Amino acid sequence: MSAIGPDGERVVERVSIARALNLGLRAAMERQPKVLVMGEDIGALGGVFRVTEGLAKDFGEERVIDTPLAEAGIIGTAIGLAMRGYRPVCEIQFDGFVFPAYDQIVTQLAKMTHRSRGALPMPVVIRIPFGGGIGAVEHHSESPEVLFAHTTGLRCVSPSNAVDAYWMIQQAIDSPDPVIFFEPKRHYWDKAELDPGAQPYPLHRSRVVRPGTDVTVVAYGPTVPLALRAAEVAQEEGRSLEVVDLRTISPLDLAPVEESVRRTGRLVVAHEAPVFLGLGAEVAARVTESCFYSLEAPVLRVGGFSVPYPAARLEDEYLPDTDRLLEAVDRVLAP
Amino acid sequence: MTSSTTGRTGPGTDPVAGGPTTAGPPAGSGTAGPAAGPAPGAGAGGALHVVQLLTPDGRRVDEGEDPEVAAHAAALTVEDLRGMYRDMALARRMDTEATALQRQGELGLWASLLGQEAAQVGSARATAPQDRLFPTYREHAVAMVRGVDPAHVLSLFRGVDRGGWDVEATGVSPYALVIGSQTLHATGYAMGVQRDGAVGTGDAGRDACVLAYFGDGASSQGDVSEAFVFATAFQAPVVFVCQNNQWAISVPAERQSRVPIAQRASGFGFPGVRVDGNDVIACYAVVRAAAERARAGQGPTLVEAFTYRMGAHTTSDDPGRYRPSVEVEQWRARDPLTRLEAHLRSDHGAGDDFFAEVARDGDALATRLRRDVLEMPDPAPGTMFDHAYAAEHPQVEAERAWYAEYVAGLDGEDRPAVEGGAGGGAPAQGGAA
Same domain, yes or no, for B52 and B134? Predict the structure, then answer.
């Protein structure tokens, strides 16, 4: 199955996020021989989420590298490959497994460009399926994005839908900087119409994905579909929510948020990561500074609790849902 | 070349000292106290062969050695040997000057290489121009052999920048300060060399290998074990050069490994060799053989250069708190320079004039480096924003702009000169070393 027809014509098809990522990786690998894909079980198996399905067969094991089971080794060798001119795309199997590689990411990957005064750029992409909602065992449902966004030298993005997934993975690969690419794993199978001939939206831009007038809701990754559902419910109650999909976490693009808040005067930020020191804190601080005289209510945050991610039977209680999001909407609208 | 645990090193012979050995403990006993002065063939883990081609009193030996290793040593010309001596002497003189500069407050810190000149010069001289080397913060002689201006090394320790030599031109990666991290970079780089088809072609100008430097302390790091795993799994062209200088700051090598570090390689499925790290000829020949093996596509080798950190860990350290001076004295008798000097004098006709000339060159280098260091300008504050990212990052640019505006609003006296932009802040350049 190809996104481009046999005669090179556009084929608009409904694809899942996982499939869109696969197509995006293929497109990048076809375009650039220096692009490599590496990680655990990404070859014959196609990755535990099948994102790399068929790549080993089509591109060979020199470019699709089934690595030993060692995350620091994956990122550390990717750094060396980047020094040699390659553009590795590393898969970390689950969010909670990134920490053996955390040192290599934070102390080496993020700083190599700076410490070499630009001589050693690090075009490395690290794909991390993140977030909860799939009933998994421990360490398979975490949202560690701010631990990376806080580190200068890294760029962090998160697509919320298949169209963005297709373009953003290619744009991340094209970036001369390391990009931590957070994939909303509970939505891997959500489908959307993909037109590979369309003009891609810039990687580091946020955008309004549902216009509204009463409250601005900021989300990224898995909370975008959540915010859109909440907006549907609110609509029935006569409230109009404007949903902004951040898409990019570092750098942050708050221009669409600020523009929206100047109209609505009210802002709720939603993420699965714990509220405490989460991205919502940064968004709230900035919007408070830039839109102080437009705000009609304090900026509210909705997210995970300050506890370890709970056992699967409790995750529906832990994760923000439409009720929790709409409760915050109620509060910012309260007279 | 293969890992060898047999050979000349019999009981009662210390291959480095060349005389009766201090009794080493049996394998695995782990009781070798630092005060005993670890014998290269004993120490942690017991007897194994140690490649030595130049005895501490300057005699060339090679009986029973790997023929390939012996051949590389035999191919060295008198000029090569003089060059090795000169490299070691210049590195030592540079090191002495750097220590003095630190004591005078001109460097923030200095990590002395004293005692490790042979391991560094020998291994670096075994590389080809197309090879890539991944040093730690103590590999000053490696850097110099590869043509890095030591002023760049000093600029790092002065706090002017992070080093800043030309990585592509010299083949020397930036110093690694997080222990062991660079061994993975080296392995990944070697995997790239493989993918570029620069291994096993038989073209000496094309086939390349990678040297990963680390120490006895680093051997405990997970990154090093993972580097071994990746290198052997992919048969990457890496030579792991472990300078076992016996001390990881204050902790003796016995705490890092119950077996000789060279023996670790066999558990990962590739050869490991212990070499007398104070014998520049042996270090050269063994690393050269390992490098040829790597370039030919035969995979990684671990070379453990058994040496000694004669000085402190850094200028902030006080080794008197944890190791006896008698141990230092024992190692002084195995000095890498004096043994090569003895050999050059007795076997190759080098006279006082040669050594005086090297000493003069060393002094000239020291004078030039001192001048360069003192003339290094502090970097303009705005340069801290440079290269945080390779492509423009709005957060960094917003802060750069804010800072410039902030500084512009300060009174004249308090106002630093804010400059920057890509490529700013180059260290002062001196003449050729």
Answer: yes
Q: Report if pTM > 0.90.
A: yes
Residue range B196-214, pLDDT digits in tens: 999 999 999 999 999 999 9
Residues B396 and B271 in one domain: no
**Mean pLDDT (whole number) for A296-301:** 98
Best mutation target among B162, B185, B240, B402 (most A Cβ atoms within 10 Å) is: B185
Q: pLDDT-derived band of residue A10, with 50, 70 and 90 as boundaries?
A: low
| Partner-chain residue, chosen from B189, B230, B387, that has the shortest CB–CB distance to A73 | B230
B245 in any annotated domain: yes
DSSP letters for B240-299: EEEEE-SEETTEEGGGT-SS-GGGHHHHHTS-EEEEETT-HHHHHHHHHHHHHHHHTT--
Q: pLDDT confidence of B289, banded at 50, 70, 90?
A: very high
Based on the fold, state whether residues B386 and B320 are members of the same structural domain. Answer: no
Residue B19 counted as domain residue = no
Which residue of B166, B177, B181, B184 is the best one to mutate when testing the A interface, meaning the one whose CB has the most A CBs within 10 A? B184
**CB–CB of A72 and B184 under 8 A?**
yes
Residue B3 lies in a domain: no
Same domain, residue pair B405 and B274: no
In the set B93, B152, B313, B339, the catalytic residue is B313
- Shared domain for B338 and B389, answered yes or no, is no
Distance CA B371, CA B354 (A): 26
Query: What are φ and ψ of residue B361, in 5° steps?
Result: -60, -40
The tens digit of pLDDT for each residue in A24-34 reads: 999 999 999 99
Residue B432: its pLDDT value, please?
33
> Could you give the domains of chain A?
14-194 (3.40.50.970), 207-333 (3.40.50.920)
The answer to whether residues B317 and B396 belong to one domain is no
d(CA A94, CA A81): 23
B106-131 average pLDDT score: 98
Number of domains in chain B: 2
The reply to whether residue A104 touches residue B223, judged by beta carbons under 8 angstroms, is: yes
Q: Which residues of B touch A70 (CB under 8 A)?
A: 226, 229-230
**For tokens 């340069």, what's the residue?**
B383
Instruction: Write out the residue range of the structural domain in which residue B392 sits.
Output: 381-414
How far apart (Å, rounded) are the C-alpha atoms in residues B86 and B280?
12
Beta bridge partners of residue A269, listed in sequence order: A218, A301
CATH number of the domain residue B361 falls in: 3.40.50.970
Residue B175 annotated to the active site:
no
Residue B79 counted as domain residue: yes
Indicate whether B87 and B169 sit together in one domain: yes
CA distances from A169 to A18, A89, A193, B315, B348 (A): 11, 9, 17, 47, 63
Among B371, B395, B422, the domain-final residue is: B371
pLDDT, mean of residues A38-60? 98
- E strands present in B70-203: 132-134
CA distance B405 to chain A (A): 19
CB-based contact (8 Å) between A289 and chain B?
no
B38-48: average pLDDT: 57
Chain B positions with Cβ closer than 8 Å to A: 132, 161-164, 166-168, 173-174, 178, 181, 183-193, 195-196, 222-223, 226-227, 229-230, 233, 386-391, 393-396, 422-423, 425
Note whether B225 and B93 are same-domain residues: yes
Of the candidates B192, B391, B394, the beta carbon closest to that of A86 is on: B192
Q: Write the residue in B166, B181, B391 that is nearest to A175 by C-beta.
A: B391
Q: What pLDDT is recorded for position B369?
A: 98
ipTM of the complex: 0.96
How far is the C-alpha of B42 from the C-alpha of B47, rounded, in Å?
Answer: 5
Contact B157, B373 (CB under 8 A): no
Beta bridge partners of B304: B242, B274
